[in-house]
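Comment thread on ticket #2218

A.B. wrote:
> Attaching the input chain for the structure job we discussed in standup.
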Amino acid sequence: MAQRISHCWFFLLASFVFALPVCAETNRIAYVDPTGDIYTIQPDGTGRRKLASGEMLQTIAFTPRHIQDEKGFYSWPVWSPDGSRIACFRLVAGENSQVDGLYMFDVASSQVLHSYKAPGLQPIYAYWAPNSQHLAILLGGTSPLSLGLWPPPEGQHPKTLAQGVPFYFDWRADAQALLVHTGGEQNTKDGHSVSMLEVGSGKRTVVSRSPAVFGPPSWSQDGKWLAYGDQAKEKDKTALMIAAADGSAAKSVGTFPEKITMEWSPTQPHLAVATSSFADNPMVENLQLIDVPSGEVRTLVKEPLAAYFWSPDGTRILYARRKLESFLWTWGIVEVADGKISEVVDFLPARPMLIVFQYFDQYALSHRLWSPDGKHFVFTGSAGPDAHPATAIRSPSVYVTEATAHATPKSVADGHIAFWSPR
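C.D. wrote:
> Ran it. Output below, let me know if you need it in another format.
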């Protein structure tokens, strides 16, 4: 992920290991409350259970300059794919230094399974391996960014796998390899490359030496294809490349404006693609659906978007956009089959939601807004036509919303960021 990600808000505790049975939690939401504690809760707001306790999180929230000495907070909870564990980060700002931590919790017992803390660690993003055994963690405490594997078999510091700025990646389904898009590389055009990294051996196989402006390369859900953006022959254009799962037989399926985002359907060999003609534009537009086997392209949404997320069954896409006539945002849903669009609810995002939007193509691989059954989604901020910026920033709520037109969001807790369990 890009170097400009602030390391402000993510962090966790000391070093305990408990031999606990794996017990998956179903249909629960993990969130960080205003005091920096982590909870899980049922979608109707009942069954609240604390996982971790931080100290007071200042109400303005999510920047270290607002943290008093020895105060700290947890953030960015991420569910393991089997639903049994939650990993998160913690930041404690002491008198002379900042101490960051990595934590892994057993959800059923709320106990710490693993933890590690060190000054200047600066974890900024975590993504569970598909086998739920470890995480790939992006650390900002060094320059360039460092990708580590945690917890390691021996020792506590994340095992370094690769470095680069920017850094985007996706796990292979067998948890034995990562597909990475990095900068700061020697012997590649402009120092950027797309490559396949074997986790065990560290062997690296270059897929592209001239990637374009895009986020994470990724494998299709069936494991047959991988997708990435490459520099096209035309200036300021991007070629969308589809290759075999091992990176071979790459071919372009179309040329697009310079910046491109892509998300694979969770059920079909379809890519949802949006673009911008400006590399630094936080918005993308013209959301299109590409059927990879046939090459057929259909337009789904023709307006600027901040982010979009596939439903678990692959039939709908949730997206967020700014309303031109006001300062509000709107959640919309487009039906993939016929392109029907429904406006769900107006809102203003909490600050961490803006980070999710800025790097949504990476977060969509690891963090879930949709409920497992695809009937609801979760977000944080201030909701409704009377949503206020001060509320969204200083005292945001966790909202559960039915994925239907003109739905009424339900506030289930006070919190800065929230994600749904995978099952």
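A.B. wrote:
> Thanks. Noting for the ticket: The helical segments are 351-358, 360-363, 389-394.
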